[in-house]
Amino acid sequence: MSPKITGELLRLLRHAMKNCKYFSEPINAYIVPSGDAHQSEYIAPCDCRREFICGFNGSAGTAIVTEQHAAMWTDGRYFLQASQQMDNNWTLMKMGLKETPSQEDWLISVLPENSKVGVDPWIIAADQWKNMSKALTSAGHSLVAVQDNLIDVVWIDRPERPSTQLRTLGLDYTGMSWQDKITALRAKMAERKITWFVATALDEIAWLFNLRGADIEYNPVFFAYAIVGMNAIRLFVDLKRLSDPALRDHLQLDSPSKSEMSIHTFPYESVYTELQAICAAHGPKDKVWICDRASCALTQVIPKAHRSPIPYTPLCLAKAVKNASEIQGMKMAHIKDAVALCELFAWLEKEIPKGTVTEISAADKAEEFRSQQKEFVGLSFPTISSVGPNGAIIHYRPLPETNRTLSLNEVYLIDSGAQYVDGTTDVTRTMHFGTPSAFEKECFTYVLKGHIAVSAAVFPNGTKGHLLDSFARAALWESGLDYLHGTGHGVGCFLNVHEGPCGISYKTFADEPLESGMIVSDEPGYYEDGSFGIRIENVVLVIPTKPKYNYRNRGSLTFEPLTLVPLQVKMMNTELLTQKEKCREVICGELERQGRKEALEWLLRETQPIV
Amino acid sequence: MSPKITGELLRLLRHAMKNCKYFSEPINAYIVPSGDAHQSEYIAPCDCRREFICGFNGSAGTAIVTEQHAAMWTDGRYFLQASQQMDNNWTLMKMGLKETPSQEDWLISVLPENSKVGVDPWIIAADQWKNMSKALTSAGHSLVAVQDNLIDVVWIDRPERPSTQLRTLGLDYTGMSWQDKITALRAKMAERKITWFVATALDEIAWLFNLRGADIEYNPVFFAYAIVGMNAIRLFVDLKRLSDPALRDHLQLDSPSKSEMSIHTFPYESVYTELQAICAAHGPKDKVWICDRASCALTQVIPKAHRSPIPYTPLCLAKAVKNASEIQGMKMAHIKDAVALCELFAWLEKEIPKGTVTEISAADKAEEFRSQQKEFVGLSFPTISSVGPNGAIIHYRPLPETNRTLSLNEVYLIDSGAQYVDGTTDVTRTMHFGTPSAFEKECFTYVLKGHIAVSAAVFPNGTKGHLLDSFARAALWESGLDYLHGTGHGVGCFLNVHEGPCGISYKTFADEPLESGMIVSDEPGYYEDGSFGIRIENVVLVIPTKPKYNYRNRGSLTFEPLTLVPLQVKMMNTELLTQKEKCREVICGELERQGRKEALEWLLRETQPIV
Predict the structure, then answer these.
(1) In this predicted model, what pLDDT tens digit does every residue of A39-56 receive, in sequence order?
(2) Inter-chain touch A478–B547, beta carbons under 8 Å
(3) Are A515 and A409 members of one domain?
(4) All residues at 6 or more sequence positions from A257 whose CB lies less than 8 Å from its CB, including other chains
(5) Is A52 an 8 Å CB contact of chain B?
(6) Which residues in chain A are closer than 8 Å to B481, comparing Cβ atoms?
(7) pLDDT tens-digit map of A300-348
(8) What global pTM score does this model have?
(9) Domain boundary at B102, B127, B154, which?
(10) Under the phi-then-psi rule, with left for phi > 0, alpha for psi from -120 to 50, and beta for the rest, what region is A445?
(11) Of B132, B154, B176, which one is at a domain's C-terminal end?
(12) What is the complex's ipTM, to 2 decimals?
């Protein structure tokens, strides 16, 4: 992987920073966050501004350019990748290490007195703006909103914003009509005396209207905003997308009778002026709900007296708690996904000895097997297919220049998932097709013990996910090992593979209690830089459980694994383990039904009960 | 326990709330926090205002009185006790339960529009003032500072503020002179460009000057403030206390040469005007460090531009990390303490069958045995000596009207500790002198498993205590059980038995990473209301450890138990346990040396190795 050459781009950007056409005074520093105007984690090509300026294409990172310096902050998953993708113009800021300054502290240390720090107010979240602005102001600087995005100014061949076809989802999949979702939302609004709710997160809008798009690779969402009042629904979207009669019928756009369930459609860009008009037409008693993490631009349209910011929206929480139809869909999706992966592993076992399988061809083969399954839509994220040392790059994505051949001598880690119309999958398996070393087996077994400790945990209702994180690490810690990422994230149902507001992490920010029906991943790992990576990931469903006692009638919860792909027994130090191999019987049945014989034989052999 | 009759007191308080002598307008609600002007947890009798007004005498709780209502918030440790000590005029607000409103939400729900809520600014912390004020203002009310304390107005026979004799501690005990502590503090101040530091916490001031007092029962502290500049040290204390020549010598008060180590003494009450004068004499570049939790009154003396609030002070952190002399002292104190408790348990075993031992007489006997040990000063907190159902009252203190007789039929829980000149102890043991029930044994064993899981945990440097809390609960959770308190608190060295900034709790607030040399308690429990209570508590020292690997050179930590009192084997379901009984050999030696034969025999019998 060779780094992006950024000298000329930085020169142009610094020139734009001094150009009073964009801001009334020269700007001393310019912040380039990684998100889009919806604070999406995965973004469309037109929004990959941070990648454009520095070369690093991971999912999380913030670049800051000053007259003298260019620095990029990212977390432990990406330290190796970022250092390989950025040239010498850039300093990598390793977040989470004690010696790494925060963006604010760094800016204060390098800026001349009374500096202006610019940022595009549409791609910085309101809460981030607030914190950054406060820190800069207290040091005598100021954070300023630059309306024209300065990256776009220097990005000559920037792609268009996508506008793909929309797909409607029926009740079989969603379990709840969009009208019922609106009614439930309005009930929450009434409870808190809220008059308007502004939805800016793309997955929340897709979930609310039971629609899916393909505007962002891997995420079945579409660019839109929605504003919901007690008697009005406004949807902001490229109007050309609304011509399909089935779609118009789904949204009841042509219904002659107007009611509080009538959707008024507006062009995507008009959200700013419409929200302004709504706020102007109402008194300060009309409170508007908007997420803390919505864009600063849109948040600041709402006068402070009207604004009722929330750390996560009622849609975010409602979406996280899956209903019976969604759970059923997720289960079906995971069965199909397990069939595809069993086929992959049987194929790998046969092909690897020939020396012709690479990280890229293995990933392609995984996609091919998945695509043969019913209602396959696409991948849920770029497949991490990594051999040996590449496995230690936590969010590695194989590229032609890094592509390694699978062999009988190295550990193979594949973290992959798909979007099916009925659900989203995300699974990681770590395999060895020859003989793993004692150290590799030892590490694998610690990771597995952590994985099982979380999956098998019983905990009271109301417990937040961060209280389970250490269970995943205890076996590693005992041997002096650890991993620098969280243990689990929420998973959408035919939606984003990462979603809030719950998860399992040592970070406690915006962590809502786990509830029955929530779906999260359980994915501890261990990474030996320059040598190998191990991660074991299942998607698990939070379910009620009834242990022997019921203290203060609080009730208890545990997890049910949805992922049914077997683990490789030869990677385990079996004396350390007691394991219930639930996956065997379920997947065998499905493989048999589908007549996939080789994969069935592989599965039977791989999942011999541990004696 | 009969509740305090509060009708007449509330009438007088409400009368004072309307009296414009105390505030220019009538006050609609008055808040009575539990602390003193130093935000101490344990307080002197003159500061027990919340107890005076509502009757509840636990260590944590806030009372709020309005025209119509009187409500008192406390946490799970005190639900039973508070409900027994308060009469029908009071509503108990159970903190931590979902249905319990916060103080702010409750006030907003009961107050008429545009209300004034009063509080004494000396006994509310600055951060609490800020939060409360913000919430009330956003609902149209206001929080106002009432300079005269309205409880004192109606408290005719309020005791005097104590002014006990001060004790100096030499280097053998402290390991560091107060001059070296001042130098270290100034180095921290220089690092952060701070010109003045205001110390308001009594234990921090006692630690800084290597002095101890006895102004507050159980806590060897004295009423004082200190303000430290780069060239000046000001100590605010009742000047009558400074006549002792040894004390004057320790503080070098009569040294003829003036230097940056000269202490200037001022009357206790003059801290407000002196701090005002300091702030007036300096520019806005002179930053003043003061803890977020210092009193609102003193914090607001410092103009906002000068103020640099911190969640905990550098003294708090320095005090928490014990040096070699302090660790040695703590170890010696715990050996003496274990000798006293072995004597107690041997005595109890002999006396209980006679039916003459009560909770109070057992507590007295424990104190008697402790007082025979060298350098005993007093107890470190009121002994919790509780039989059967009283054990379920988490911070129970036996009173004549609740006093229960120890018998062969009920569980006995004793949580007690002492102040020795060389260290502070805090230990809980749960015993049965007859035959425990299967359920009692089961619960004891889960609690023990949690206790051991924490004590034996290995974790990376930089880990915060809250990440270990779930280890203490996992065995209980698995059976549907739990306890409604944290797992551990910091312990001072001949100082407060509860101290920050570290601990082990599901609460993540102001939780600093554990460091080698810190000392915390490890005390999971289980409480069966109306039946019994179980708690197992050791004080443990954070020590470095070297597991097999050392991931990213971070280093690992674990705990060394300082408490050496054995656990009762008959309370255990031994098949569930593997335990290293370290305490046996150390304490046997000490009992033998001291010629305490009966206790030695008891210890030998009780700590038979588990087969």
Answers:
(1) 998 999 999 999 999 999
(2) yes
(3) yes
(4) none
(5) no
(6) 549, 551
(7) 999 988 888 888 899 999 999 999 999 999 999 999 999 899 899 989 9
(8) 0.88
(9) B154
(10) alpha
(11) B154
(12) 0.86
